[in-house]
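Write out the 3D structure for:
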Amino acid sequence: MSENAYFCTQHQLVELMNKAFQYFLQVLLVSCLTHATEVFAQSQPHSPYETHEILKDSTFESNTFSAFTLYIIGHPNNGSASRAGNSMNRFFTYTPDSSFTGRDSVSVEVHYTVGGNPIIKWFHYAFDVKESIVWINDDEFMVPANSDWTFLDLMANDSSTLGDLSISNVSAVNNGQVDIVNDSLFFKPTEEFSGMAYVRYTACDSIGECGSATTHINVVDTSDIVAHSTIHLHTMRNRSIRVSLPSDGFELTQVPDLGLVQKQGETGIWEYTPIQNVTGQDSFEFELDSSFFTTVHITIHDLHDPNSFLVDDYIYTPLNESADFNVLENDLKGNLRINSFTQPDNGSLTHNGNGNFTYEPDQDFSGRDHYTYTVCILGNCETAKVNIFVGNLSPQNDATYQLTTTKNRPLVINYDVPISNFMFHTTQEPDYGDLSVYPGYDTTTIGCNTVSGNNLVVYDPDEDFVGQDEFELEYCVDGQPDCQIVKVEIEVIDLVIDSVCVCIDDCVWPGDVNYDGKVDMRDLLTLGWYMGSAGMARDDVDLQNWYGQSGDDWADDQFTGENLKHADTDGDGVVTSADTAAISNFYHNVHTLVTESNFEYKPYSVSLVESSSGPYQAGDLVTFDVVVGNSSNPVIDLHGLSLTYFFNNAPFGISEFNAQEHNQSWLTYDGPSLFMAKSFDDQLDFALTRTDGFGAAGYGIVAEVSIVIEDDIDGIRLDNSEDQYFSLQFDLKNITGFFADESEFLFPETTAFIDVVRPGAEPTIKFGEDLLHLFPNPSGPGQGVNLHMNGGFEIEEIEVYDVMGKLIMQRDGIASNRYHFDLAEKATGLYIVRIKTDGGVVSRKFQWVE
């Protein structure tokens, strides 16, 4: 779209909109929506670069600018760029070098006006020059609830410059299952499920060029439509969002003021797209057969635009050491002059001219500091942030490192941190091998591998040795008085790798998706971001033993700079949900020394909200909702979240740590998702991530966590001077948010307390239905149904009935506060369980799904 494209104001729309012309105006709104780039363009969230895929040996022509003049300020490395057109009709062309394929870029400066304070804008274009181009697009379908296999023509709207496409893989499925037969995909929804299901798939052409998209499947149960319903949704400026309705017969009866609602075929799915750059509150209404009504309220949140010529900086310096750096070197325009800058909070700053600064931290200060600088070009100003981390970046040493290698294979510790004046000293030699330390930056050859790095440490086990060995290192920073001891235990496993060239450095350690040295929940967040990516498969695949495995680099790197091959944990050449298995199997494993994360904090609120009823006794089930964000500060553009649920003040033991995704989480609305939880000791790690590459906005419940309180373990008994309740503390820590601009931030920690009856006390707890917990619901074979009765009451007898009132199961003599049962070989459907306890009778409905 040209820069002088028609734009409608909100006032004009409200003035024009009326019942007689509402559908006509919906069409008119198309001219007012987010500007569309041409076929090859893909908008990169929060990046100043607009990415275009073009064919090799072709020429790209930019959109037209209604501008006085245009300058090319960033020339390509693998092609040529030329400006063209005339005044008020400017554009540029880019032609890659003959036969070149790969990445290139062009930057332009556009002067819309001339004079004392001209309007100037800067635009940056990234080109991916390819042998072929594929267009894989999202789809919408509708299937009835409880239906059998349905063919979905996923690729009807997909295409390639080479013609035929085939389904390469299905990387994720939510709320159903798929079967691929002769390149045709069939979908079957989960029994008794209604709502949105998702299939994330990848399709490739004949030379292996691939793309991924999400299929949105509206699973409808027309027998369960609510007469009057209200839907509250959140989106971001210039970001579309889908609305799913339980029938394709709904009609739009009241149109929105701030956007366009378009029906997505006969699927019951409608897409809302806000007017370009509009924010605020909007609403619209649907009606079915004059009997069913749905009102949709949408909040459009603002979204920070990236700078167009200034780039934030990240500086690291050891404790009590100054840092010299230039903040202009990474900016997107040359010959800049700093107009002003602020001062940091925890140090002094000197500008030495031309963007060169000296930062001197306060004595003994460690942590994060920052300042900003501003550059103005003929009145067009931008501000960038300089982030400064002060610290020695010492390896974590709260526990002994447990590393692994295979027989007759050296292990390289390449401690890659953004300071160089550190060193390792050997304080304890290994008993069954040699330990070498290469001071400074060095390059060494190990077998057929060349390894480079700062202060490399290489452990070489004795020939044919198998078993446990150990050594100690001392980590020091030049000029610092305090050094740190790092203890390492290494297991040499009895395994010989059948390879001509055994991998030594930059190996794939299955599960360490982000390649930061350890396997944890942040790896699930990274996996979700790259879901559906494809590259070279690996021959060397072992998901039973923990060691570095060989793998060719993929064409793309992760946002951290690590190669994308590390995300393919199972080595099949595609990033799919199956790659979560290695994260689970090798959870908490490490393969090198690791440093503490130093992410910034985002001031979003996180809360543990008690959803069960106390006070509690030994044997009771405690449940919490995990609430992220609030109405005054909603979370913007979040893609995934990892957390640690921590219990730390025992006289009481706890068991049965559990977490699950909230089934109506705002974080995963309108997109597929992954969830994982791992419990050990006194904590539960869990993570939730989208897998479609789009961020979400909103606030509310994202997950649910639970524990069971066991008997007191310290013999605490009621004292006459004490309260009859003991307060237990639960924490959410290590809360890391992964955002759609490929950034990670920490969220503030949070704490919750519950009251537990002290042993020996005799509180009066009123019997009530809220004391009974039934889970999971729905359930099925392999899970069964769990009953848990709180408050000190015991389950004596249960009876299970079908919806016709027929008794199908009876169990008595239970005498416990918890019971598990299974409806083996029973039909899918709704059932009622009647629970008789020593305090009264409770009945609950549940769904059984085969």
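Residues 1-45 have pLDDT under 50 and may be disordered.
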